Amino acid sequence: MKLVIVESPAKAKTIERFLGPDYRVVASYGHIRDLPGSARDIPARFKKKGWARLGVNTDEAFQPVYVVPRESKKHVDALKKQLREADEVLLATDEDREGESISWHLQEVLKPDVPVQRITFHEITRSAIQEALDHPRSVDEQLVRAQETRRIVDRLYGYSLSPVLWKKVRTRLSAGRVQSVALRLVVDRELERKAFKSTEFWDVEATILADEVEFTAALVAIGDRRLATSRDFDSTTGAFDPDSKALILDQSAAERIAAQAAETMPWTVSGVERKQTRQRPAPPFTTSTLQQAASSQLRMSPKKTMILAQKLYEGIDLGGGDREGLITYMRTDSVTLSDKALGEAGRYIEQHFGELYHQARRYKTKAKGAQEAHEAIRPTEISRTPDAVARFLTSDALSLYRLIWSRTVACQMADAELDRTTVELTVALEGTGHRFRATGSILRFPGFLRVYGSAREDTLLPDVEEGQPIGDAASASAVTATTAERHETRPPPRYTEASLVKKLEEEGIGRPSTYNPILTTIQDRGYVLKKKGALVPTYVGMAVADLLKAHFNQYVDLDFTARMEDALDDIAQGDEDWVGFLTRFYKGEGAGDEGLARRIESQLPEIDYPQIPIGDDPKTGQPIFVRIGKSSAYLQRGGGDNGDRATVPEDLLIDDLTPERAAELFEVSAKADEPLGTDDATGLPIYVRVGRFGPYLQLGEGEDGEKPKRSSLPVGVTPEDVDLELARKLLSLPRTLGTDPATDQPVTAGLGRYGPYVERARVYRSVPDIQTVFDISLAEAIELINAKKGAKTVLREMGPHPQTGKKLQVLSGRYGPYVTDGSLNGSLPKDLEPAELTMEEAVGLLEKAAERKAARGGGRGRRKE
């Protein structure tokens, strides 16, 4: 019997379908051996060694100490049991360096006394498995050394720098070779945004009707000077480029020009340019580009994308006992396609679209070190269309498969051909020609766009000629409107998960298998939070990045980290000695190169506790900083350790913490020991305070070790809004409404983690606002609790839409209140209460929802609640 070992049970299940009774396929459940995870895992013979905590013998050629974790021992025992019946072992783990390392560890731990061979395949299909069986090989020691070196570097980096963070920032933090660089990118971007100064500039737009076609033209030049656009401003500071010759219009100038242009006729067509352009398809997916596309088109996080891709790779039950992988290996930085895939794609395109649509293309990977996999991510069978497998997949898995399938087919199709037209019009104002420009395009040949089935809308311009008048009495053309348009320079956008992966890939940092763990780690450590899909650093994350940049800059430098990735690739190719590399990294190369260990030793006495500058107090002029406490961040005003302090709520991030907001927190903190008044029922004092979870009320100070009663303030209520009456009412919650006569169970109303609610027997229903908690009757609460789960609560009836006549309602949804007309949903801004929403604002929110829907090609227009 031949024993085939893979990483996962799902992969084993798929492969077993392809092999006969002479094979048995089992799973190792990932890595079976690793460096010690804690002090108790270190073998007794090493515990007294100075390097023991590292799990790496830094005194003797950086030999790693490997142990089998407790959770893996049962898997090792099961593999050894299976091995007793085997006459050959086939190691079939993934084809990248990590997979090679897993196979090597299996061989080292199991020590088979039967022949052992290594097989690899890029897809889990019958033909690919057979091809692998026909061409076995030995475990590649160079790939193993590269992966082992990566693991040792990561251990030395993390276990050496993390204790520095424990001493100088907060316990239980961690540094990481790639995670710390990713954190630095997020923090640096936030600092750029804070330093950015928005600049206002204006232009003028005209709506023109000619040959029954209405189009928009924008003012682009006055005389010989072109108007400023966003390109004339520094993208990092927002300031106007002093070398630019462009003209900046302010509001009064733009409004004056718009008014004059509307009254001055005729305009003249001063230029017409027509040209044909081509739009090329994108290359097939790599790990990075798949994550980016899934994020932008499917709103999927990289983590979810990789989980679904793993399932598509490992195999889907297609019915009738047929189980195959639907896509090739999903951790790759290659854009190459096999001859098999190229042939299948060509035949499919010619059969379904025609020969004109087929254009064979071979893509080459430009990224250095793109060698961890042999091929791009593609369907294992092009003929297996998304529609053909739809009934076997979840909606999310199908969406991702459709994305991969469409991209693969599209990359082998002809270019799309477009006719682009540019029309310039001139009107003389105050003796100077003002030039307006309009652009349009018409799709002449869809090419690869056919596979996406997108309903692209042409931008039409009328068939006009140079010298033709617009707006004169003798023609059917007219300038129907002119408006002054305001623009503003915007700070560089925050990174999203997908754009951060893109940046890491561009800088050569990390590899396909590491992107998702990097994103997960910086969020799990509490260094970065997601805010409206973007990554925002926490104060702890900023303090960690600040310390590392100030004292260990070379270890969080982009170039240094990228060079290290290149060195690991060189080790994999046999061009670099791994022990020499580790020696240089950890111990240095002599004078001028300390190495990590000596750098920490020399810097530790110089490191002060990080403090994040916020600005100067608007009243006192004293500097304000954020510092990191044991459990929460706090504000400090003035120097030294005796300055004023105030706790920073966890949800108050750096982008909202202005000096003015900080001054408010100091003011509340100063009054924290001054009672607002006393509670009628208990006679205890009531305090308004701010903690790590935000502002709250406290009743008394607690007695005999008991915690005092506390109540968080409702969303939108600030400490300044709280009077004694409101404080007493909030501290009286939860409020018992009575007993449900049908169930004989009490019904209460209160304020919880997710807002105001009513409850019966742990069945909760949200209510619109805190006032409802005080006003709702027993009957109303019972009706709400008994309502069908998932049914939307109507917060307000808005009446009919002024244009469409559809009924508008404000509903309570999972992510907050939103306005709907039954087909479009628009979320209300956080600072806008449902009761304050005007009809004009409601219509505007729905118009924006319609625009987003159109931008997505008509899909995913409705918000899911």
Features:
865 residues, alpha+beta, eight-stranded antiparallel beta sheet, four-stranded parallel beta sheet, 24 helices, 34 strands, 33% helix, globular, disordered C terminus
Folded structure, characterized:
By secondary structure, the chain is an alpha+beta fold. Strands 7, 8, 9, 10, 13, 14, 15 and 16 form an eight-stranded antiparallel sheet that branches. β11 and β12 form a beta hairpin. It is globular and about 95 Å long.
Task: Sum up the overall morphology in one term.
Answer: globular
* Individual helix count: 24
Distance between the termini: 54 Å
Largest sheet: 8 strands, antiparallel
Strand content: 15-25%
C-alpha Rg (nearest Å): 33 Å
What proportion of the residues is helical, as a percent range?
25-40%
Short description:
The chain has 24 helices and 34 strands.
Draw up the topology in text.
Layout: E1 2-6, H1 9-18, E2 23-27, E3 56-57, E4 63-64, H2 70-83, E5 88-91, H3 97-110, E6 116-118, H4 126-134, H5 141-168, H6 179-195, E7 200-210, E8 213-222, E9 225-226, H7 251-263, E10 267-279, H8 287-298, H9 302-314, E11 316-317, E12 323-324, H10 339-352, H11 386-389, H12 395-410, E13 416-429, E14 432-445, H13 449-452, E15 469-470, E16 478-488, H14 497-506, H15 515-524, E17 528-531, E18 534-537, H16 539-551, H17 558-572, H18 578-587, H19 595-603, E19 611-616, E20 623-628, E21 633-637, E22 644-647, H20 659-670, E23 677-678, E24 685-691, E25 694-699, E26 709-712, H21 724-731, E27 735-740, E28 745-752, E29 755-760, E30 763-766, H22 770-775, H23 778-786, E31 793-800, E32 807-813, E33 816-820, E34 825-827, H24 839-855
Parallel strand pairs: 1-2, 1-5, 5-6
Antiparallel strand pairs: 3-4, 7-8, 7-16, 8-9, 8-14, 10-13, 10-15, 11-12, 13-14, 17-18, 19-20, 20-21, 21-22, 23-24, 24-25, 25-26, 27-28, 28-29, 29-30, 31-32, 32-33, 33-34
Helix pairs in contact: 3-5, 5-17, 5-18, 6-15, 6-16, 8-12, 8-14, 9-12, 18-19
